[in-house]
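## Example record

The block below lists the input lines for one assembly entry, exactly as stored, with component labels intact.
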Amino acid sequence: EAGVAQSPRYKIIEKRQSVAFWCNPISGHATLYWYQQILGQGPKLLIQFQNNGVVDDSQLPKDRFSAERLKGVDSTLKIQPAKLEDSAVYLCASSFGLAGGDTQYFGPGTRLTVL
Amino acid sequence: RKEVEQDPGPFNVPEGATVAFNCTYSNSASQSFFWYRQDCRKEPKLLMSVYSSGNEDGRFTAQLNRASQYISLLIRDSKLSDSATYLCVVKMDSSYKLIFGSGTRLLVRP
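Predicted structure tokens for the full assembly:
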């Protein structure tokens, strides 16, 4: 079974530029998550989708971050404009449903460096 | 105060050693608990869930103490391949959101 796919794997941009990340979850997984992992910290949830609806975006900096999952499958996360503190690994994860026992499977992440 | 706190380590142990990590959580409403493993520059992967009665998976034993709000992970007979960062994770089932600790780094030396 194919895992969670993410692209690009690495991205280097200058501050104030825009960047977009793409995620394709495991086939059949209804729930998709975007996490931000800053060096030395654990992942922090940015946004959670079930199908194409947002379940939780309470920690998404909405002035600069946006995400969509229009057809309930793949998703994009955008940062516009980027700041130095956005340098992090952006992890996408998916799970079959929202049920408490569902395991979240993570993609390899996109490592973003903002100069 | 952080919602999930862990000693960052690193724990540097020889092969064959037994090592234990603890993790504390602040929200008594937390319902589900997990340990994830993250290798350097890789994604987190579920190691094991933690149940109130304690559970064991081979060389790994996880325990939960709800009264004291801490979770532990014990690794017996450490292998070089156990070198990784171990992330303590809690979930409040009402929100289905995973809350990660910052991780404890383990280095197993020959």
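The interface with chain B takes residues 40-45, 48, 55-56, 91, 98, 100-101, 103-104, 106-109 of chain A (CB under 8 Å). The mean pLDDT of chain A is 93.
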